[in-house]
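Duplicate of #3305? Posting structure anyway:
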């Protein structure tokens, strides 16, 4: 089963969201029957935010990334701050479960809390606030467990996962705190290690990397100003870019000992790590799409995206960059990948996905999404395959007036213990056909980047954020 998550409704009554990240979360699933049939279903996540808003015929006061139009009044802003963020519209993940062999499914965003989801019906089971040691008791009065990641990663060789937690200090005199958390199940979590950051330097981090022995977090100089956030009630207003005066900080955490080593690199912004692996020379390699600053997300306002002239002025392109952290010499090398002659946009992607069998291992292929691939029109969407190993397999998928989203790689099953090539598999991606005004699921050959099959839907699927493929779900 393929399940995706993303923002789908941007107005209720006479009030609307003003940023792309704030639409009410909606789930979409494609279930493969094994006989050539595909069943499609979709359902809104029934968060408290969503239910209150629908019942009021107005957007209810909760914390959101941007703001609303009309704006909340001061009393509504205070109520939003009290309620915190409740719209889990970014990703969906499965964690091990003691009560179900299929695991527990949760919808996620960049906050600590989540909603449990029934993967078969897409129904919302309930709100979850996982607790961890050292964040309760007296600490619950000093810190608020707020920011986290919608991209947890598996701990190599186990059924556990890692995530991180930013706890904001709400009592003067205390510094903010970051914790590396081991997820054993949806509610069972433990602290691997913790460290503090200055009051004015609570970093915004969206993703991270894991190798067999290390967790690597990049802290770009995009900081969360708690005072500005309290005044506005908007995450966007609280984010401040300090790239002109501060470098990027890299934390490398030894999983077994919890020891943290800190490195620095030139200031860049990023959203998504691609992958990381260790070399025999005691070096950690990390790949990610990087940006000159944070404008790539700060400018994604609905007013801009709905205006052709304004959106075509946006520069959404990343620079595919490889970081090498030499643990012997405490050095960091930074090497952008050169552009492809045949496909210049192949190093300008984001929303990266890989063959998950190569997670935390040396790998060769990454797939991504490129808006404005022609450097002219933001609506020119392309999918790309980047060959990191120089095998000559750079590829591009593009059809005029077709609008794809993030892909997901499904490897072919091995037969008779035969090792398959890393890129042997299919890519699943929802696409909006702008000519027919309906969406379809494209099944793309990951080697050639050519469409192998399509399954048209009776409706449109908005531009979603993230999702995964879950085999064996009935």
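Output from current build:
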């Amino acid at each position: 089963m393929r399940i995706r998550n993303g923002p789908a409704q941007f107005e209720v009554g006479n009030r609307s969201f003003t940023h792309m990240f704030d639409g009410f979360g909606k789930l979409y699933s494609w279930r493969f029957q094994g006989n050539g049939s595909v069943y499609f279903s979709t359902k809104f996540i029934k968060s408290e935010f969503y239910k209150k808003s629908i019942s009021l015929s107005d957007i209810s006061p909760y914390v959101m990334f941007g703001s609303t139009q009309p704006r909340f009044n001061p009393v509504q802003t205070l109520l939003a701050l009290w309620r915190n963020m409740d719209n889990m519209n970014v990703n969906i993940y499965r964690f091990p479960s003691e009560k179900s062999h299929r695991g527990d499914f949760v919808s996620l965003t960049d906050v600590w809390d989540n909603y449990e989801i029934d993967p078969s019906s897409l129904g919302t089971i309930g709100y979850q606030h996982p607790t961890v040691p050292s964040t309760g008791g007296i600490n619950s009065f000093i810190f608020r467990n707020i920011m986290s990641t919608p991209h947890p990663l598996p701990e190599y060789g186990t059924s556990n996962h890692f995530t991180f937690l930013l706890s904001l200090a709400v009592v003067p005199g205390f510094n903010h705190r970051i914790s590396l958390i081991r997820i054993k199940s949806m509610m069972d979590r433990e602290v691997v290690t913790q460290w503090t950051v200055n009051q004015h330097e609570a970093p915004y981090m969206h993703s991270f990397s894991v190798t067999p022995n290390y967790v690597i977090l990049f802290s770009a100089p995009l900081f969360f100003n708690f005072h500005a956030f309290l005044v506005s009630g908007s995450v966007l207003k609280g984010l401040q870019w300090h790239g002109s005066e501060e470098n990027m900080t890299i934390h490398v955490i030894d999983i077994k000992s919890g020891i943290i080593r800190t490195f620095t690199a030139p200031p860049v912004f990023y959203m998504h790590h691609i992958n990381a692996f260790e070399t025999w020379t005691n070096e950690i390699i990390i790949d990610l799409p990087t940006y000159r600053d944070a404008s790539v997300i700060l400018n994604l306002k609905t007013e801009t995206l709905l205006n052709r002239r304004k959106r075509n002025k946006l520069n959404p392109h990343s620079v595919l960059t490889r970081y090498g952290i030499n643990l012997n010499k405490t050095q960091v090398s930074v090497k952008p990948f050169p552009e492809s002659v045949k496909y210049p946009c192949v190093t300008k992607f984001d929303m990266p996905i890989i063959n998950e069998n190569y997670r935390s291992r040396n790998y060769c292929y990454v797939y991504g999404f490129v808006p404005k691939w022609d450097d002219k029109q933001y609506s020119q969407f392309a999918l790309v395959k980047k060959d990191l190993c120089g095998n000559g397999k750079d590829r591009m998928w593009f059809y005029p007036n077709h609008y794809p989203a993030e892909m997901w790689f499904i490897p072919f099953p091995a037969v008779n213990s035969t090792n398959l090539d890393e890129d042997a598999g299919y890519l699943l991606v929802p696409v909006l056909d702008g000519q027919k005004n309906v969406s379809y699921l494209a099944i793309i050959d990951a080697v050639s980047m050519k469409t192998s099959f399509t399954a048209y839907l009776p409706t449109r699927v908005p531009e979603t954020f993230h999702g995964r493929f879950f085999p064996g779900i009935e």
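Confirmed duplicate; merging threads. Residues 221 and 373 are 27 Å apart (CA to CA). The two ends are 8 Å apart (CA to CA).
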